Amino acid sequence: MDTYLAVVAKREVREYTDRPVPEEILTKILQAGRAAGSSKNSQPWRFVVLKERQHRHDLADAMMAPRNLDRCAVAIAVVLLNERLRFDAGRVAQNMMVAAWGLGVGSCPNSVRPDQHDRMRQDLGVPAEAAIATIVTLGYPAPGQPRPRPKADPEKIVAKLNRLPLEELVHRERFSG
């Protein structure tokens, strides 16, 4: 899939089939996260891969959207060793999700409930000084969910986006209102 198409066509997937994500696909998704840039190349992230269904089920109630974690094929917790570098965590998560989409795998970023951070940190073995920035759920899209279309026309997708018009978002040289 062309990179521009993968970016503009990417949609969140919250319902997945039972089909497992093969290890070689998961490795490519993790490599895409690893390849993200970071402030001063500090690479302040670590990844905790959650493949065990029962483990994900046990953690699901700590999430803002428990169903996403409970029903995915695999999840990746993006852990920040330096919580001040949240921007870097967003870059990592976006890289992984766009790579997954290009490989035919759906994804969704997920938040831990504020009152559950300590519990989640303890369960995943994350040090107290680190932060769980997001948990990316992954799996093949269930029927009715958005799915990657590698031969779609990106300009048709852009034309149908439910986004503010570019003219409202872009200012030249100075912010004008």
Q: How would you summarize the topology of this molecule?
A:
Elements (H helix, E strand, L loop, with lengths): L2 H7 L13 H12 L10 E6 L2 H7 L6 H6 L2 E7 L5 H17 L3 E5 L6 H8 L6 E9 L14 H7 L5 H4 L8
Antiparallel strand pairs: 1-2, 2-4, 3-4
Helix pairs in contact: 2-5
Number of strands: 4
Q: Radius of gyration over alpha carbons?
A: 17 Å
Question: What number is the mean pLDDT?
Answer: 93
Sheet having the most strands: 4 strands, antiparallel
Task: Give the low-confidence spans.
Answer: none
- Overall geometry comes to globular
With strands numbered from the N-terminus, the spatial order across the biggest sheet is 1-2-4-3
How many DSSP H or I helices? 8
Give helix and strand order, one letter per element, not per position. Answer: HHEHHEHEHEHH
CATH topology: NADH Oxidase
Termini Cα gap? 37 Å
- In the CATH classification, which architecture applies? 3-Layer(aba) Sandwich
